[in-house]
């Protein structure tokens, strides 16, 4: 009787862990410096805001004169300081991401790998600053207790107002805070999904991560709509608009000269084979160019349709139902894109070409 053959105990192909712990640990080490710099910037902004209130020169006092007691309402100024530093860091991380995904010049002074790491780290810091912005507002509502509630009802009421989308139910905050919360809750998965791209697949992560531009747009919209420092038309509000011009220009450059060869628009895309995809890419580039023109006009004229001193503010053109409708459309598009990518991966099979260095480019 022949002996049965020994079972094959050779190890199969190694699987990448779902969570990229090595990169995450490295980024967290670098996060210490970046978050410290962000907190220093927040402290500087807080001091500037506080001094302006004490001196009676803050634009906020034109909107809410009762905030003139800077010592009593210091949490409100901390909320504003975190909000401005969060917007600054969001601007920085978006610019880094766009540079990383654009075809670099021949002599780039910084390696792409370092740009990518800076982009990841500043993204985490941005999320932390956004949460600090919301937390300071939550603590201010607890301190003020305008309705004289008990401890548990007060905690519940403040939590709903600050952290539940659509929970804030008065004035401009009905829309502005909703926009800010949508930005926060979208930023978390879209930014941190890099560390689980082995689970989602690099292609799916890449496609969904591009929707981070929506997070930035919502953040700027939230600021221009609800930031009492930019409540009225004026120099500071125009500066905020002007800072969006380099973002729009770099975004246009990202579309015109992407790092990945398969994202470049060619004449062949418009005349044969991939006509639909080519038209979509062409429309995207035209819309980005139109955005640059609009931002340039707003910056030059200083007029964006915002509030004017001495004139009554009209009704909000955008309401909560419109925001919810827009969010539903956005999530539907994201879901459709995810399903299309998954279907494409199934059709192409598990085997594929070896990943190139730019494979993980956003």
Which features characterize this protein?
about 65% helix; 14 helices; globular; mainly alpha; about 350 residues
Terminal-residue CA separation: 61 Å
Structural class: mainly alpha
Mean pLDDT: 87
Q: How much of the sequence is in beta strands?
A: under 5%
Strand/helix succession: HHHHHHHHHHHHHH
Described by the principal axes of the CA atoms, the overall outline is globular
Separate helix tally: 14
- Say how many strands there are: 0
Cα radius of gyration in angstroms = 24 Å
- Assign a percent range to the helix content: 55-70%
User: Main sheet, how many strands, which sense, barrel?
Assistant: none
- Poorly predicted regions are 351-359
Notes on the structure:
With 362 residues, the protein is an all-alpha fold. The protein is 66% helix and 0% strand. Helix 4 runs antiparallel to helix 6 (173-192), helix 8 runs antiparallel to helix 14 and helix 10 runs antiparallel to helix 13 (275-301).
Structure at a glance:
With 362 residues, the protein is mainly alpha-helical.
Task: Reconstruct the topology from this structure.
Layout: H1 21-54, H2 60-63, H3 74-100, H4 112-144, H5 151-163, H6 173-192, H7 197-200, H8 202-209, H9 212-226, H10 235-242, H11 244-256, H12 267-271, H13 275-301, H14 320-348
